[in-house]
Write a structure and sequence with these properties.
The protein is an all-alpha fold. Helix content is about 60%, strand content about 0%.
């Protein structure tokens, strides 16, 4: 199993939607299952036009209700993993539904992001 560095994960995020898993495995010197695992961890997906030759699945009423219930206080990456979608898909759907994050959640997100940046710079 591949150990991913920060810069590699960032590069994978940039290239994933438009590059085949086989090509990504060659670029990152790993196997396709490593690519799939990291993509799932990062909650990224292929471009809709090239997602196995078919459009992305529609949101179900149950998923929409769950999104309405949990969006204000749950991280988007956690929602993306729960629904098997990209973070962009969750953001887009929430925006379309007029959902907003709770102000306290936004403060916590800011603190989490600062802590992550601090951890990266201290290494």
């Amino acid at each position: 199993m591949k150990v991913w560095g920060f810069d590699e994960a960032k590069a994978l995020r940039r290239q994933y939607s438009r590059t085949s898993d086989a090509e990504l495995a060659r670029i990152f010197s790993c196997n396709e299952s490593d690519i799939a695992s990291k993509a799932a961890e990062l909650a990224i997906s292929k471009d809709k036009r090239s997602f196995k030759g078919r459009p992305m699945p529609r949101w179900t009423e149950e998923q929409i209700e769950e999104l309405r219930r949990d969006y204000t206080h749950t991280r988007n990456v956690d929602l993306a993993r729960r629904f098997g979608r990209s973070v962009k898909s969750v953001n887009s759907k929430a925006h379309g539904l007029g959902l907003r994050k709770d102000p306290a959640r936004l403060v916590n997100m800011g603190r989490e992001n600062v802590a992550k940046r601090r951890d990266r710079t201290e290494r």
